[in-house]
Design brief:
alpha/beta; Rossmann fold; N-(1-d-carboxylethyl)-l-norvaline Dehydrogenase, domain 2; 2 domains; five-stranded parallel sheet; three-stranded mixed sheet; 11 strands; 47% helix; binds D-mannonic acid
Length: 471
């Protein structure tokens, strides 16, 4: 079977670009070429291109050129499988032009042809100190870049240095566009870039502050990591081997603040919502979708459910998920055009999609990064107004149960977290009972906000839930 490299020999059933790919020019440099880029931003751009424009995407991983190499071997083409119960639609996406090696990223970002630098690098790659909301100068990649700002390797360091090159050459800036699951992701990225830059080049920091917009975005599409089934189905449907194939659900949503320095694709033609303020949408998605996802992932993983679709079929977990959606909704103000009950029902249907094999282990990882926006912020708000935050105590206990599973499984529990070593050390030194485990994890520096740590009743509720889960 030949590799997918061209569009003219695909079966008629496969959707494909309805524009002239040869006319595309690089306009977007995307950092983080994971499944999410391929299922979301590139798919929106592909549809927008049907309505005009020449916005091609170049993409690079920060640490290696694995995906870039695969995309280059396929001429940038890959298959997006949209799976619904009983049906899989294959679509070949044409908006990605090429992959870029890590060593070439800075040069490409300095090129004035690049007008948007978008990011899906995951929460942990930002160098965000959750306790202060500012830069974590001790984050390994940030610390390395602060010591050598002209050879940056972190996203924040690259954005700063590339904007510096644009400024020095008298060029217009690009628009950095964060698409990660952080509340106010654009504002967060802006603060990190400004704080990072001010440490070694205050003049550049001031210029960035005055000239570079950092729109926030809310992105949503459930996209599991590709598996052998993804590659096999892509090959069966397209007739070609495709090592960049990804699979996703039918639902897709993108809400973007419409502030761009040098233009953007007509993403609204592809269904994106361009708004002045993305905050209410982001909060809703992070607290309702992602918060409930985390709950189901930690409870489900420990109950032996491999996929979210199995976790939600477990009556105990389904009941907890439904209850949590109600509590999460109660922390939100009005969201323009959205009925929270319908939104919650749609989420339950999406979680239950039998065609989507989304591993609980995938969502369970990086808990220390996901807890603050999904759990701690809304819990703090509820407690501040005297409301019940027990559902958040349950999620926290579920994470603790998952994190402490390393004891039960002889060190082989696949805890994946940037603070994994610290967590293991804290747990190794703690008594193995629920109260000891909870105390050790509550004491992780800077993780829990003071408002939760000082609330004896809420802490007690976490320990009680943990004891039940461990029983
Ligand atoms: C998930 C998200 O892995 C996770 O933490 O909650 O990746 C989720 O699938 C997406 O945000 C859906 O848009």
């Amino acid at each position: 079977m030949t590799l997918l490299t061209r569009l003219d020999d695909l079966p008629a059933t496969v959707l494909r670009p309805r524009y002239d790919r040869a006319a595309l020019r690089a306009g977007i440099l995307h950092l983080g070429p994971g499944a999410f880029l391929r299922a979301h931003l590139a798919a929106y751009t592909d549809t927008a291109l049907e309505h005009g424009g020449a916005w091609g995407i170049e993409t690079a991983g920060l640490r290696n050129s694995e995906t870039a190499d695969i995309l280059n071997a396929q001429n940038g083409l890959y298959t997006l499988l949209v799976r619904d119960t009983g049906d899989t639609q294959a679509r070949v996406i044409g908006a990605v032009l090429r992959g870029v090696a890590p060593g070439d990223i800075l040069l490409r970002m300095a090129d004035p042809a690049i007008r948007i630098v978008s990011l899906t690098i995951t929460e942990k790659a930002y160098g965000l100190n959750a306790a202060t909301g500012g830069l974590d100068a001790a984050h390994p990649a940030i610390a390395a870049d602060l010591a050598a700002p002209h050879a940056p390797q972190s996203a924040v360091g690259l954005v700063s240095a590339a904007l510096g090159l644009r400024r020095a050459a008298g060029r217009a800036p690009f628009t950095p566009l964060s698409c990660d699951n952080l509340p106010a992701n654009g504002a967060v990225l802006r603060r990190l870039v400004l704080e990072y830059t001010a440490r070694h080049d205050p003049g550049l920091a001031a210029w960035i502050g005055d000239n570079v917009p950092f729109p926030s975005t809310m992105v949503d599409r459930i996209t599991p990591a590709s598996t052998d089934a993804t590659y096999t189905d892509a090959a069966r449907l397209t007739g070609h081997e495709d090592r960049a194939a990804v699979e996703t659900e039918p639902f897709t949503q993108w809400v973007i603040e419409d502030r761009f320095a040098s233009g953007r694709p007509a993403w609204e033609r592809a269904g994106a919502l361009l708004v002045a303020d993305v905050t209410p949408f982001e909060k809703m998605k992070l607290r309702m979708l992602n918060g409930t996802h985390s709950l189901m992932a930690w409870l489900g993983f420990m109950a032996g459910h491999e996929y979210i679709r199995d976790a939600i079929a477990d009556p105990v977990i389904a009941q907890a998920a439904r209850a949590h959606l109600r509590v999460a909704a109660s922390t939100l103000g009005p969201v323009p055009g959205v009925n929270p009950e319908h939104y919650a029902q749609d989420l339950l249907d999406r979680f239950a999609n039998r065609a989507i094999a989304h591993r609980t282990a995938q969502i369970a990882m990086d808990g220390t990064q996901k807890l603050p926006p999904r759990v701690f912020e809304p819990a703090t708000e509820l407690l501040a107004r005297g409301a019940d935050a027990d559902s958040y105590a349950l999620i926290t206990a579920a994470w603790m149960h998952y994190a402490s599973g390393i004891r039960a499984r002889d060190g082989r529990h696949p805890l994946q977290d940037p603070r994994e070593a610290e967590i293991r050390a804290a747990l190794a030194a703690a008594p193995p009972q629920p109260a000891g485990i909870a105390a050790a994890l509550f004491a992780l520096p800077g993780l829990f906000p003071a408002a939760l740590l000082n609330n004896e009743k809420w802490r007690g509720a976490v320990t009680t839930h943990l004891a039940k889960l461990m029983a």
